[in-house]
Amino acid sequence: MATTANPSRDDFAAMLEQTLGGAESFEGRVVIGTVTGIENDLAVIDVGLKSEGRVPLREFAAPGQKADLKVGDEVQVYVDRVENANGEAMLSRDRARREAAWDTLETEFAKTARVTGVIFGRVKGGFTVDLSGAVAFLPGSQVDIRPVRDVTPLM
What we know:
CATH class of the largest domain: Mainly Beta
CATH architecture of the largest domain: Beta Barrel
Largest sheet: 5 strands, antiparallel
Order of helices and strands: HEEEEEHEEE
Distance between the termini: 83 Å
Number of strands: 8
């Protein structure tokens, strides 16, 4: 007759860490996930965690357009939290885009290259500029060599 040994607390802790240890390393990172379903205005995305996450479809579309997303598509998403109160992964496509934009800006800065952006708003003392996903402030004094009185053509 074979006897089974009771696993010690250390063995249990090691098995638990082996099972769940990798999940925490996902937080704060951009990962590739697979669209497993589309519910109303949400995309259900599997990134390999215990549960799937839901991301609003508007995050996958350009402003004023509809999202072109199908089941089976692979997308980059930012893992905000591994699990929320409902047990779902908290994912964001917008934050993944911003992270990619900042990576591009850092690369361009290291090469001392110029970057281009689109002015989309006016704030006190200058403008807000979209740099392919990253939002920046452009001082009004840096728009042109001479002071610009009428900023309408710039926007």
